[in-house]
Design goal:
By secondary structure, the chain is mainly α. It has a domain of 184 residues. The chain is 59% helix and 5% strand. It is built from 8 helices and 4 strands. The strands form 2 sheets. A two-stranded parallel ribbon has the order 1-4. Strands 2-3 form a two-stranded antiparallel ribbon. A hairpin with a 2-residue loop joins strand 2 and strand 3. The protein is globular. The mean pLDDT is 87.
């Protein structure tokens, strides 16, 4: 049995706190931006390199709006329906990854349209560059001692602050490895070998949905939702939707047939 020990606050200056969680998000965007610049050098990113910073700004806005709205309306509407003043209180917690993906996809759609590009030309770049961000985000969850797993007597168990006296699966680490590192290498491999844009986006939905569905069996469900059908979580239903959607995204990509410049 292990004990979580990392202080979530890096340092404080008076009332100002610099926390690991925020630092992880910043690091994720920095690394993601560097990957986008690499994709630009390889001609997979279809715009001038200078456009990357503007796109990242669009992503940040879409991510936070989507993540918050999904959490409020899908995960905890019973609370927010009678506490409307807390809807914008993001600092109290409450973000949904599935909502973040949806929000970033909306931002990507309008960004691509503004630049007269096909949605997949930008979305595939986002999919490849997003893996490190997922990894760092889950490391932030781990340091915060949130989104921990179910009680376990395995060697991997950790006693989390706020998680009770019993060791739990460090499901944040499972997600960070599968949804961040492994997923990144899968998509990096795919983006150089598929004949048309869109396959990477479909591979992201399929792979992430599968990995997250599996990890949900180790993760503690949201207390206000619990289990559905006595066994499954809201996250798993959303993952099934992602997996199904991946098929239609692949069909759409095949029909659009936007050529990948990396494949002759």
């Amino acid at each position: 049995m292990n004990q979580a020990w990392i202080d979530p606050v890096i340092f404080s200056i008076g009332p100002l706190q610099v926390r690991w969680y925020g630092a992880m998000y910043v690091l994720g965007f920095i690394v993601g931006g560097a990957i986008l610049k690499y994709l630009s050098d390889k001609k997979f990113w279809p715009l001038p390199k200078e456009a990357i910073d503007k796109y990242v700004t669009w992503l940040i806005v879409g991510m936070f709006l989507g993540a918050r709205l999904f959490y409020v309306f899908l995960y905890n509407w019973e609370y927010y329906s009678v506490n409307l003043g807390d809807v914008l209180a993001v600092w109290k917690g409450g973000l949904s990854f599935h909502g973040a993906v949806f929000g970033m996809c909306i931002s990507t759609y309008f960004f691509a349209k503004k630049n007269n590009l096909h949605f997949f030309q930008i979305a595939d770049c986002l999919a490849v560059a997003g893996g490190p961000g997922l990894f760092f985000g889950r490391m932030g969850n781990f340091i915060n001692g949130e989104l921990y797993g179910r009680v376990t007597d395995s060697w991997a168990g950790i006693v989390f602050p706020g998680g009770g006296p019993f060791p739990r699966h460090p499901s944040q680490l499972y997600e960070g490895v599968l949804e961040g590192i492994v997923l990144f290498f899968i998509l990096f491999y795919v983006h150089k070998r598929q004949r048309f844009y869109g396959v990477v986006s479909a591979a992201f939905l399929l792979s992430y949905g599968t990995f997250r569905f599996i990890v949900e069996f180790f993760r503690e469900p949201d207390s206000q939702l619990g289990y559905y059908l006595g066994y499954f979580t809201m996250g798993q239903f959303l993952c099934v939707a992602m997996i199904i959607l991946s098929y239609f995204i692949f069909r759409w990509a095949k029909k659009a047939n936007v050529p990948n410049p990396l494949v002759s």
